[in-house]
Design brief:
Blueprint (H helix, E strand, L loop, with lengths): L3 H12 L4 E12 L9 E17 L4 E6 L4 E6 L13 H12 L7 E7 L9 H17 L5 H16 L6 H8 L4 E6 L5 E5 L4 E11 L3 H22 L11 H7 L5 H25 L3 H18 L5 H10 L5 E6 L5 E9 L3 H16 L4 E5 L6 E2 L2
Parallel strand pairs: 3-5
Antiparallel strand pairs: 1-2, 1-12, 2-5, 2-6, 3-4, 6-7, 8-10, 8-11, 9-10
Helix pairs in contact: 2-3, 2-4, 3-4, 3-5, 4-5, 6-8, 8-9, 10-11
The structure holds adenosine-5'-diphosphate and magnesium ion (MG).
The site of magnesium ion has 3 residues, from loops.
Length: 384
């Protein structure tokens, strides 16, 4: 797990300066997939995988960023920031710097060392973790003090406008605002949120399928276009519907025939997923874990069949978990086409569950999965 003392030593050895250190977690989404860009609801939790950012000022006007994950250093001129990313890991921290500069902050030179244990590209949002950790670190040298929700929006803009990834607000929001032992129900329309406690007896078991199908990028754009098509059809009849958040199952019953079959299915997923996500938060608040598990199972079927965002490996990981002792609910989490499943499991059964699931998946798919037993963690903060 992340170790601020090691990052401090690394930073001091490399840059001969004492750093301030900040941490920002990755996340797992319990329920609410592909609802954020429809201005709907999501319910993620921050996890105990995180990215650390160590920062110290420099007198030479340079911005030097180093990633221990990539064992690589890049140097920029603080007075001549690049306008766009260059498809390099440093786009994530530099995107944040660029957005902060756009907000009117004078950017001084600094050295930034980054290290994270969020698996990269596995759907646990290492990208939001590095953005939010960088945003806190750079805020400390420019004297900014943004509230968590505002910081999240700035980081989302860095990913949208500088990195060039069309992500919603969920990942950055939970990384900035997560709370230990809680899930967070977020209304992606106005960024209001409600915390719901996860019982101490429940573990978040994250099972990495170890696959990420290369169709993911293109399919993501197609899905978003289909969601917009469905919304446009409904809006012809009900102009107040601006996003699928405003639409209902009965709208689909009335006007689904005017959409392409795919748009209808994608919209059915998004509309029912919003209902399930709000109900899931209620279930958590009522300590009704059986209901939460049932909603997660329904959400997976909807994600897989209607949204067609799953894959053979993720469907297998969910199916193979079903009759294992201690399981409360399992579903594919994240953007889809691979990545991780989230399993809510009785804590005292979690180790046996993880071992049995790994063995079953290895036999069925021929790949050894990584399985992590996590708990819900605090959002980003200063470490020392
Ligand atoms: P995810 O957010 O699901 O992990 P993304 O593709 O959105 O996947 O983001 C992963 C990318 O974020 C990595 O390929 C890398 O460019 C960048 N990144 C994340 N963490 C680090 C890190 N500690 N050091 C350098 N780059 C990182
Ligand atoms: Mg990401």
């Amino acid at each position: 797990m992340h170790d601020p003392a090691s990052l401090r030593t690394l930073h001091v050895n490399r840059f001969q300066a004492e750093p301030a250190i900040f941490v920002a977690p990755g996340r797992v989404n319990l329920i609410g997939e592909h609802t954020d860009y429809a201005e709907g609801f999501v319910m993620p939790a921050a996890i105990d995988f995180a990215t650390l950012a160590a920062i110290s000022p420099r007198a030479d006007g340079k911005i030097v960023v180093y990633s221990e994950n990539f064992k690589e250093e890049k140097t920029y001129d603080a007075a001549a920031l690049p306008p766009k990313g260059s498809k390099h890991w440093s786009d994530y921290p530099m995107g944040v710097v660029s957005i902060l500069a756009g907000e009117g902050h004078a950017i001084p030179g600094f050295s930034l060392s980054l290290w994270g244990d969020v698996p990269l590209g596995s759907g646990l949002s290492s990208s939001a973790a590095i953005e939010v950790a960088t945003a806190l670190a750079v805020s400390s040298v420019i004297g900014a003090n943004y509230p968590g929700p505002v910081l999240a929006r700035l980081c989302q803009r860095a990913e949208n406008e500088f990195v060039g990834a069309n992500c919603g607000i969920m990942d950055q929001f939970i990384s900035a605002n997560g709370a230990e032992d809680h899930a967070l129900l977020l209304d992606c329309r106005d960024l209001s949120f409600k915390l719901a406690p996860i019982p101490a007896s429940v573990a978040l078991v994250i099972a990495n399928t170890m696959v990420k199908h290369s169709v993911a990028g293109g399919e993501y754009s197609t899905r978003r276009a289909e969601v917009e098509e469905a919304c446009a059809v409904i809006a012809q009849h009900r102009p107040e519907v601006r996003f699928l958040r405003d639409a209902t199952v009965s709208d689909l019953e009335k006007w689904g025939g005017e959409m392409s079959p795919n748009a209808l299915k994608r919209a059915r997923h998004v509309i029912t997923e919003n209902l399930r996500t709000v109900a899931a938060a209620e279930a958590l608040l009522n300590h009704d874990m059986a209901e939460l598990g049932r909603l997660m199972a329904e959400a997976h079927v909807s994600y897989s069949r209607d949204f067609e965002g799953s894959c053979v490996e993720a469907d297998a990981m969910v199916a193979l978990a079903q009759d294992l002792p201690g399981l409360i609910g399992a579903r594919l989490t994240g953007g889809g086409f691979g990545g991780c499943t989230i399993n809510l499991v009785e804590k005292d059964q979690a180790h046996a569950f993880a071992e049995a699931l790994a063995a079953r998946y290895t036999t069925e798919i021929g790949i050894v999965p990584q399985i992590h037993i996590c708990h819900a963690s605090n959002g980003a903060h200063k470490v020392n």
